């Protein structure tokens, strides 16, 4: 699928009716979502034929992008049932399947190496302090191959250090496939620069069940 | 206080081992050595959905999943064709893979409940979405 086509399909998805500020709900724009998943697939092969989880999926944009790029199976997780409802409708409209689970990411553990890739646009932690780190920590526990995540540019050093030192990442790369300073419209008059990261978790050792 | 870690076994094995974990327990968990309690399924409505057959993917998944869990869950959802014993990986022929495919990917729990046998904790499933939110007193 061509990037432009992917972006177009994502641009037609339904978004939040009434975004819940306390959950930092805002749509992941089609421009950034399409480029994020396109990079994951074309540069690293992290999407097609893989199991992909979208943490904090909201209306499902990232997860649905993964299905359109031929992920074998995609699961979206979010705390908010209204968002999951919209994600479900979006999946139907695109005629794709996406598993959905309502849960809190910070409490999540996923036994086994089932999930290959985690994609996410996590809360920045402006409402609930440390939310971004909770997402990153859990993502690196769950993913067996790669984590793609968006974080504020201002937190760049902190994110890198935490990922490598505390959360079991063997590498933390900034991806410059996006325009260098991607302005992320959170409110109409405020732009927030974000970085796209690719983290690789250290291999996990598991006893066989 | 809810202490157990649970293994969810919903439709396919994606959520096979989803666990809900109180946050501070996380640091004490030895990675990969988690005793999961298999959630029991109370199926009210199961839907079969067609999914494209991908043998390479299935062979890869075979080594990752808990066979008994899959066989039990499939039975609960009305599909009885999987052998109880783990098949030898060397004999994963097309016929077996079709059954595996069906159980793993095509059975969806639309309405029902997941129940932790240890604590009795119930997680409802509505419109195919399990609600695994923990209550405040469980965290």
From TrEMBL, chain A:
Lineage top rank: taxon: Eukaryota
One function term, GO molecular function aspect: nucleic acid binding
Keyword Methyltransferase applies: yes
Keyword Manganese assigned: no
Keywords: Methyltransferase, Transferase
InterPro entries tied to this protein: DNA_methylase_N6_adenine_CS, rRNA_MeTrfase/Polyamine_Synth, SAM-dependent_MTases_sf, Small_mtfrase_dom
GO CC term (a single one): nucleus
Domain Methyltransferase small: 48-138
Sequence similarity: Belongs to the methyltransferase superfamily. PrmA family.
PANTHER family reported for this sequence: RRNA N6-ADENOSINE-METHYLTRANSFERASE METTL5
Name of protein: Methyltransferase-like protein 5
Species the sequence originates in: Cynara cardunculus var. scolymus (Globe artichoke)
